[in-house]
Design goal:
CATH topology: Rossmann fold
Structural class: alpha/beta
Number of strands: 10
Distance between the termini: 28 Å
Number of domains: 1
Length: 202
């Protein structure tokens, strides 16, 4: 499979690239600089990235924001990627979001009434950006999957994570970036994940 990865030098992206190549896929890492990337392109410019995406089987974006201030990076970059994918005729898209923004019947009382309200204030701006990004993805008309991790760590890959489709994952409070990457690789190869949001955790 020919896979294009945006955010390839970030904490999750490096694992996606490594594990996809380990699984036998051909991966192109795209970034704004040559530092660790195969291709240099401006992700906010669809005309710049469309030729890179052309001919691919799937696109993964693990672009993340830094800091807690106002930002539209994920919304804007994802909209640009979606536009470029449509121009290039590429349909499969997997994005990284988070599980903290949503509350449902799988949340514990502590999560629902204490942890998430606090985090919603602390991470107000980046979470608003992620929520807008999800809307771009869901309305794209592409074959999308949204992955929703909780708190990310730099622990090793275990392969022993749990997932939930369309809901939060009860008790799944953290996940390593390496195991999140494993989920992304699995989703690439599983058509049943198309049009789904998938929560992950231990």
């Amino acid at each position: 499979m020919e896979i294009i990865v945006f955010g390839a030098t970030g904490g999750t992206g490096v694992h996606v690239v490594a594990q996809a190549r380990e699984a036998g896929h051909h991966v192109t890492a795209v970034g704004r600089s040559a530092n660790g990337n195969d291709v240099v392109a401006d992700v906010l410019d669809p005309e710049s990235i469309a030729p890179v995406i052309a001919g691919a089987d799937a696109v993964v974006t693990a672009i993340g924001t830094r800091g807690r201030g106002p930002t539209t990076l994920q919304e804007d970059s994802t909209r640009s990627i979606v536009t470029a994918m449509k121009q290039s005729g590429v349909r499969r898209l997997i994005v990284v979001s988070n599980s903290g923004m949503t509350v449902d019947d799988q949340d514990t009382a502590v999560s629902r009434y204490l942890a998430k309200p606090v985090l919603r204030q602390v991470l107000k701006h980046p979470w608003a950006d992620m929520a807008a990004m999800e809307e771009v993805v869901r309305s794209s008309g592409l074959d999308w999957t949204i992955t929703r991790p909780p708190r990310l760590t730099n622990a090793r890959r275990t392969g022993k994570f749990r997932t939930a489709t369309g809901t939060n994952l009860r008790g799944g409070n953290n996940i390593s970036r390496a195991d999140l990457a494993s989920l992304i690789i699995t989703c690439l190869e599983d058509p049943e994940t198309i049009g789904q949001s998938i929560a992950i955790g231990y």
